[in-house]
Specification:
This protein has three helices and seven strands. The protein is of the alpha+beta class and 181 residues long. The protein has a domain of 112 residues: Ribbon (Cystine Knot Cytokines, subunit B). A three-stranded antiparallel beta sheet has the order 2-6-7, with no helix packed on it. Strands 1-3 form a two-stranded antiparallel ribbon. Strands 4-5 form a two-stranded antiparallel sheet. It is elongated, with a radius of gyration of 21 Å. Pfam families: IL17 (PF06083). Belongs to the IL-17 family. Its main location: secreted. This is Interleukin-17B.
């Protein structure tokens, strides 16, 4: 466990400290550099997506890949080193399910679900419940319908017609799982 803790510290915190020290050196020299990475909670599509439509299309592609996956819907808490995808090679493996909401664009978004209560011990490759697998959340931009569409559950008919109007909002979605003590 101590080795796992040290390894995690070296992989996560040491690179962050190097990035921070580089930024501090730049400030001492009078250079105003923007931070190298934006926090996950402040993320929004940037130059990598030319439009919201491209962003929504990429999510639709992920959903299509998930639906067409040839892998069995395994729900076992185990690591599979033969797979290239990180969600099955993690010490806190996860699977994806489709989060569906008809009043949102995109209506379907892949969402992570942790497969273990504990974490996989890298020495025994068995679940160790002295640690816990928890979801990692990120905020994704989506468009939400502002009024209810007639015929929806809970909709009370009124004399007014609903004009479909969407507003971009940030929604919290589980994107993976990690291991904590």
């Amino acid at each position: 466990q101590l080795l796992l803790c040290i390894f995690t510290f070296a992989m996560v915190l040491v690179p962050e400290a190097k990035d921070q020290s580089k930024a501090a050196k730049g400030r001492r020299r009078g250079l105003a550099r923007p931070p190298t990475a934006t926090p996950a909670l402040a993320w929004a599509p940037d130059d990598s997506y030319t439009s919201m439509a491209d962003y929504e299309h990429s999510i639709q592609d992920m959903v299509r890949q998930l639906r067409n996956s040839s892998e069995p819907g395994d729900t076992k808490c185990q690591v599979n080193l033969r797979l290239w995808r990180s969600n099955r090679r993690s010490l806190s493996p996860w699977a994806y399910s489709i989060n569906h909401d008809a009043t949102r664009i995109p209506a379907d978004i892949p969402e992570a679900r942790c497969l273990c209560t504990g974490c996989i011990n890298p020495f025994t490759m068995q679940e160790d419940r002295t640690m816990a697998s928890i979801p990692i959340y990120s905020r994704l931009p989506v468009r939400r319908l502002l009024c209810q569409v007639p015929g929806e559950v809970g909709h009370k008919p009124s004399g007014k017609k609903c004009h479909k109007k969407y507003q971009t909002v940030m929604e919290t979605i589980a994107v993976g799982c990690t291991c904590i003590f």
